[in-house]
Amino acid sequence: MSTTHRTGRLAATAAAAALGVTALAGCGSSDDQAFDGPKGSGSKTVTLVSHDSFNASEEVLKEFTKETGYTVKVLKSGDAGVALNQEILTKGSPRGDVFFGVDNTLLSRALDSGLFTPYEAKGLDRVAEATRLDAEHRVTPVDTGDICVNYDKKYFADKKLAPPSTFADLAKPAYKDLLVTENAATSSPGLGFLLGTVAAYGEKGYQDYWKKLEKNGVKVVDGWEEAYNEEFSGSAGGKKAKADRPLVVSYASSPPVEVLYAKQPPAEAPTGVATGTCFRQIEFAGLLDGAKNEAGGKALLDFLISKKFQEDMPLNMFVNPVVEDAELPEVFTKFGATVEKPTTVAPDSIAKNREQWVQSWSSLVVK
User: Fold this and answer.
1) Which of 76, 247, 348, 350 has the fewest Cβ atoms nearer than 10 Å?
2) How far apart are alpha carbons 145 and 33 in whole angstroms?
3) Is 22 exposed, middle or buried (0-12, 13-18, 19+ CB in 10 A)?
4) Integer Cα distance of 69 and 45 in angstroms
């Protein structure tokens, strides 16, 4: 279902801010990456299978090699939904040892397929309890992110119009023809935004809400790259494309990237976040059933929730750590949005209703 993944934040939001080209949505390079360890460690390779947007500093992965003797190979396999489906098809004979990138919107699919071998990672007690969704430890929480509507500050200042702050605001006449979102059937941000509306309005009310959005001129495109880089007037890419939609479904971490990768970093982010429209994503990693290097896979899972790796993530994948003592970089704390009460949907409810919700949504808004 999900063909556009949220974690292309570096490969995408970063590039979007700097160049207006690649996608936050996880459509980056599919080339494998190898981080070489000490001489002779090639026989001790641990393979991490992931969506295209996984990124970590070479320095930190070499530290893992130094500590464990294992060399990390990253096998990028497309965006999140595609990568997960590939692993399900090769269940029992996996292409690697650890899979990273399944989130709470698709978690049930991975768990129901028996994709992972249970393992309780060392240091799990330091991970925020709210992110530990699997009591059997088949997956380990690695990061969180918030899908939220972003707005173009200049547009709203010029129009002397307050930007929206809630789901309800988006359906008001003042915001007619301003919002672009991603297809919930083909995009992870789009799916997350749909789930946010289900959480806000309930299983009976979300369809009426989307009818209002449809009448209010919401535009639906296939994925994040098109929405953010081509349709959203507030992004660096959107400015180059002369985009005309000042509202877009993106991430709470998008504004810091617009600052960090600007040619001349501005005093404040050119985009803001409607914090009353946010859906919390949690991303997991797990030891693949049939992994050839099970010991190396377990060591890598331990490392993914180490403070060293957790503090490396924000500026590489533009996600938030799950380890409670990990610190965020200043660009996050200064320019990012704090989402105090994101919407969530229980994993078992997502598992039971996801396909139906998406089908109903598609019948309402996809023409």
Assistant:
1) 348
2) 24
3) buried
4) 9
Q: And the tokens for 150? A: 């972003």
Residue 238 has pLDDT above 80, yes or no: yes
- C-alpha to C-alpha distance for 314 and 90, rounded to whole angstroms: 31
Counting runs of H as helices and runs of E as strands, what totals does the chain give?
15, 11
The DSSP 8-state label assigned to residue 132 in this structure reads -
Residue matched to tokens 């320019």: 335
In sequence order, what DSSP letters do the residues of 308-330 get, joined into one string?
A: HHHHHSHHHH--EESBTTPPPPH
Say which DSSP state 159 is in: T
Helix (H, G, I), strand (E, B) or coil at 93: coil
Query: What is the rounded CA–CA span in Å between residue 234 and residue 68?
Result: 44
Given a cut of 70, whether residue 14 has pLDDT beyond it is: no
Q: Is 315 within 8 Å of 327 (Cβ atoms)?
A: no
Contacts of 237 (CB under 8 A, 6+ apart): 16, 17, 19, 20, 21, 228, 229, 230
Residue 94 CB contacts under 8 Å (≥ 6 apart), including other chains: 49, 87, 288, 289, 290, 291
Kindly report the pTM of this predicted structure.
0.82
**Side chain identity, residue 354:** R
Residues 6 or more apart whose Cβ sits within 8 Å of residue 96 = 47, 48, 49, 73, 75, 288, 291
Residue 223: per-residue pLDDT: 87
DSSP 103-129: ETTTHHHHHHTT-EE----TTGGGB-G
What phi and psi values does residue 303 have, to the nearest 5 degrees? -70, -35
CA–CA dist 246, 233 (Å, integer): 5
Q: What is the widest separation between alpha-carbon atoms in the chain?
A: 65
Grade residue 177 by pLDDT with cuts at 50, 70 and 90: very high
Within 13 Å and on the Cβ side, how many CA atoms surround 260?
A: 24
Backbone CA torsion sign across 280, 339, 173, 208:
positive
Using only C-alpha atoms, what is the Rg of the chain?
Answer: 20
